[in-house]
Amino acid sequence: MSATKTEPDPIPALRADARRNHEAIKEAARDGFAEHGFDCQMEDIARTAGVGVGTVYRHFPNKEALLDALVADRFERLAEETAKALEKDDPWEAFCELMRWSAEYQADDRGLSEVLGSRPMVGEAAAAKSGLVELSGKLMRKAQRAGQMRKDLLVEDIPTMICGLSAVTGSAEGSMPAMNWERFLEVMLDGMRAPGSAKLPAPRARLNQPR
Amino acid sequence: MSATKTEPDPIPALRADARRNHEAIKEAARDGFAEHGFDCQMEDIARTAGVGVGTVYRHFPNKEALLDALVADRFERLAEETAKALEKDDPWEAFCELMRWSAEYQADDRGLSEVLGSRPMVGEAAAAKSGLVELSGKLMRKAQRAGQMRKDLLVEDIPTMICGLSAVTGSAEGSMPAMNWERFLEVMLDGMRAPGSAKLPAPRARLNQPR
DNA sequence: GACTATACGGAATTCAGATTCCGTTTGCGT
DNA sequence: ACGCAAACGGAATCTGAATTCCGTATAGTC
Fold this sequence. Notes:
Two copies of one chain form a homodimer.
Chain A: H1 16-36, H2 42-49, H3 53-59, H4 63-87, H5 91-107, H6 110-118, H7 120-130, H8 132-145, H9 157-170, H10 181-192
Helix pairs in contact in A: 1-2, 1-4, 4-5, 4-7, 4-8, 5-8, 5-9, 5-10, 6-7, 6-9, 9-10
The first copy, chain A, binds a DNA duplex (30 and 30 nucleotides) through α1, α2 and α3.
């Protein structure tokens, strides 16, 4: 096949400024959603991006689509990270690290947390497309075969866990001095660990001893 | 003191119909919030209650206040239940049952879940007023002293856990066939159990074995 | 049965934001 | 430089509720 135009690429290549704006808008939206959740305003996003609202709408049909685009990016990134985790030797360790990483990644992004926490369907679609489901399934089974993760956990439980975690990371929002997702995560991980298998030698985020 | 009017009761006693409506509205609101979360409409609530919107506003200054009232009721109920749990012999067992009960209680109520999941501050106030904090604190310490609950858990962790749980119970919403809060809860409880202490003999909601 | 303070109903008002529209500007191929 | 399709800006429009207002109905009282 000639390399010239095998695929019917319908994208006429954006004009330079358009491409630039597209990025700026996503970045601004990231900030906006992160700070105010889905309730942030399109005008603000536009202003932050240094463009007019009209331009935002030229790039994304509506608010929801804008968020979706961001979510998709995120999941792609997460999928990459999961793939990396799959390479590591100790699957349980890898799994824990992955969970911690993703929690942290989300901790300062209310927008994402909100989607995952209260609009699971959106996340689900994105997750599927990014191949995240298969990847994390593999990682899980690997950890289970190694006897480090409880055998009765199912792949479908992962989104559930992440959903719960998101709610916690997301709802800090200034109030709730004690809304501490690190602690929550560690408890959750302990619950997922295979019964009897030793605790991790040095869990990154330690739970404080009371008093 | 004469029993006639010791306290300066400023409430002139509602008219009979008003009292009736007040209840009807709360009930309608309960349903409304349960089904559509905070996004349900005041008009709908009014219609369901068989009154006009005006009447709703006569009883509750605004939507938020209406929700708050409902939340307060809930927490009071929860506090009662917690007090009962405190009476039981096995504190860990009692704690688990309590968590299961409250999760179930919430499972079919998006409104509540939403408040707890994404507006923690509201819940916090209600929790404080109902005395729930002290009560659950006591229950926790009792379980810890009995060596059944991990010692490094703090009272402040409970709301966090409940917040996570709420997100999961709340976001079922029709989609997500697998969004299974029972499983989530059991994992969480396992994570909270004292290391080494035996598992419960017969956990109510069992995790299915895969395959 | 009449009187009046309470309550009620629901149309009208407000408001906050998302989305649209269209005249203007700009990148880029010739 | 020129021309024009591709992009832009942002005021104007639309929308979907929440909340207000005020004339009407009713419970409770004499």
